[in-house]
Amino acid sequence: MLKNYFKIAIAVLRRRKFFTFISLFGISLTLTVLMVLTAFIEKLTNPVYPGDKNNRSLYITRLTYTSKKGWINSSGSSFYFLTHYAGSLKTPVKMAIVSSNSSSNAYVNNKKVVIDIRYTNAHLWDVANYQFIEGKPYTIDQINRADRVAVISERTRNEYFGEGATVVGKFIEADNINYRITGVIKNVPELEEVFYANMYLPYTVSKKDYRDKGFQGDYSAVLLAPSEQLLEKMRAEYEQMTARIPLPDKAFDTLHSNADTYFETYSRPFFGKADNNGYVRFIVFISLFVLLFMLLPTVNLVNVNITRIMERSSEIGVRKAFGASSKTLVYQFIIENIILTILGGIIGIILTVIILQVINRSGLIADLDLTVNPIVLLYSLLACLFFGLLSGVYPAWRMSRLNVVTALKAQ
Amino acid sequence: MDNQLNHSQLITDNSQLTTHKMIQLKNIEKVYRTDTIETLALSSINLDIAKGEFLSIMGPSGCGKSTLLNIMGLLDAPSKGDIRISDQKTDHLSDKQLAQFRNKKLGFIFQSYHLINDLQVLDNVELPLLYRDTTAKERRQLATEALAKVGLSNRIKHFPTQLSGGQRQRVAIARAIVGRPEIILADEPTGNLDSAMGNEIMDILINLNRNEGTTIVMVTHDENMAHKTHRLVRLFDGSQVQ
Ligand SMILES: Nc1ncnc2c1ncn2[C@@H]1O[C@H](COP(=O)(O)OP(=O)(O)O)[C@@H](O)[C@H]1O
Ligand SMILES: [Mg+2]
């Protein structure tokens, strides 16, 4: 019988080409958007290179002053603040300190090469899991001596020295200063707000004074807990510590500095504030978005289906007269819908793969490697099935209540 | 009720007709209710139809002929009264049982054919078999046979819209007989056809009744057609007048 339902369904879908097209279009488009979106979100929530230890890391990015009068002053943290206060914690085993990106232009054979530079401490190389194609990181000694040494990305190496060149020990010039290369790392996606750069330099060679005692500056830190279990303890310790810091500036009343998970570093600026990490709001927002977004093709499908039932009522009357029970017709109808949504799902998946490939290749976001996650795929197919059922059940129920004689009269 | 048979116009010998009752209608009443009006479409209809009988129903338009046929075919429930088919009560049947009952026992022919235009002739004819335990091969075979009986073997791959009215009605007959039902209910089967085509259809029905012993109830406007059947029942304003 199932085979029959299947056959009938395929026949119906082929006959109603326009309806099939509209429905498939709606379903596959929705799924594509959702899956591309989840591919992005997945990059934010799952540990990815080089943030492999993100699940036991906390990020300190913003330092915000607020006053009762409503003044807000927000920036990065100073090197002094991070070493002096964050550095005093007991739980963290390491603390990476990294400056914000600054762009520098270098010229090779009259070609401009843009290099994004960050100044770092030595712990960065332990906290993040950079993969070295060649050479190794600079050491604490080199940093302490303020040696002009650099770690560069594969991309910068290729642009500056040529594809696949061996460059350790060679010099690279940025802002009229020559740096000796100690290592080359695999490219980091530009989305990585703390770990991405094309050239990493010791903080001691920075032109800005890292000894300045102000709290605000352009550094971020990443604290590494000994284990995932101790992450919350580390966070609590940080909060207690920051609550006791005396305010240097009398114009403000409160200092906010948060130790956030990797995910919260994205959700806080969009959905939260200095005192709210925005995580819950982010989840609620995304869920609502997905629900609304999925609802659209569902409502459309329900609507199309009801119209179609009325249009097919004579056929329904005939089938009932010749022995189809209401239940049989309901099954037939639901199976038609499920086949339709699954077809839409498959088209959606193919579209998604194509679009992700295009995004990856376009270099729109440097070194981003978006993939279709098998779990996302599974959930998407399940969602398809669910909405296929949902959009079929109500119309089918209406159909099953159709009186045979009335159905036959409608032409 | 027996005296109905005595009054009926029997063309052939029907001595065995009195023994087996195929359809029994007792005190059937049908009221259509809408928000504003009530229509009494049928009132106190008592009718027995014997196994193997070919009965025609006549009456002016709107007198309740279709309503009566639909009630006999279990497509519609009466407001009052009992229907027995092959001595079986039908009022307690569930939707599923009704569907099976219709599938096994009954075949319908409608004035406007009611073929499914998106399906080929063969698929249209196979339709009743879909709701039975049959293989695709059996269905194909039975449908081909049924189409041969109505003389349409060369049209099985056509779509209904590619056929004439008479041909469409023959497809509809093939569909009605493909499952070998004991009863055929035909609502003005020749109503949309010219007399030549109408006669063709009538001949098919008469042969079916004679050769296979199928019980046929036919609504018609045509006195000539009606006189070719065993018995004629006339309705007027929802009541039996003859
Ligand atoms: N679904 C319905 N709702 C209300 N009235 C109906 C309905 N079907 C039929 N009728 C009424 O019942 C009467 C009998 O209809 P019908 O059996 O179709 O007549 P016939 O087939 O003899 O022309 C008519 O007066 C018709 O208007
Ligand atoms: Mg009628």
Keywords, please?
heterodimer; A: 411 residues; alpha+beta; 2 domains; seven-stranded mixed beta sheet; 13 helices; 14 strands; elongated; B: 242 residues; alpha/beta; Rossmann fold; six-stranded mixed beta sheet; four-stranded antiparallel beta sheet; 10 strands; 25% strand; binds adenosine-5'-diphosphate; binds magnesium ion
What can you tell me about this protein's structure?
The complex is a heterodimer of chains A (411) and B (242). Chain A has 2 domains: 2-46 and 281-409, no CATH class; 54-261, no CATH class. Chain A has 13 helices and 14 strands. Chain A has helices at residues 2-15, 17-45, 79-84, 124-127, 140-144, 154-161, 231-244, 262-271, 279-311, 313-321, 326-362, 374-400, 404-409; strands at residues 57-60, 63-66, 72-77, 94-99, 102-108, 111-120, 132-135, 149-153, 171-174, 177-185, 199-202, 216-217, 219-224, 254-257. In chain A, strands 5, 6, 7, 8, 9, 10 and 11 form a 7-stranded mixed sheet that branches. Chain A has a 4-stranded antiparallel sheet with strand order 12-3-2-14. In chain A, helix 1 packs across helix 11 (326-362), helix 2 (17-45) packs antiparallel against helix 9 and helix 9 runs parallel beside helix 12. The model of chain A has no long low-confidence stretch (mean pLDDT 87). Chain B has one domain: P-loop containing nucleotide triphosphate hydrolases (Rossmann fold, 3-Layer(aba) Sandwich). A 6-stranded mixed sheet of chain B has the order 6-7-8-3-9-10, sandwiched between helices. A 4-stranded antiparallel sheet of chain B has the order 2-1-4-5. Chain B is globular. Chain B has helices at residues 2-7, 65-72, 95-105, 121-130, 136-149, 165-177, 195-212, 223-227; strands at residues 21-33, 38-50, 54-58, 80-85, 88-89, 106-109, 183-187, 215-219, 231-236, 239-240. Chain B has 8 helices and 10 strands. At the A-B interface, helix 1, helix 10, helix 11 and helix 13 of A face helix 3 and helix 4 of B. The complex binds adenosine-5'-diphosphate and magnesium ion (MG). Residues 32, 39, 41, 59, 61-67 of chain B line the site of adenosine-5'-diphosphate.
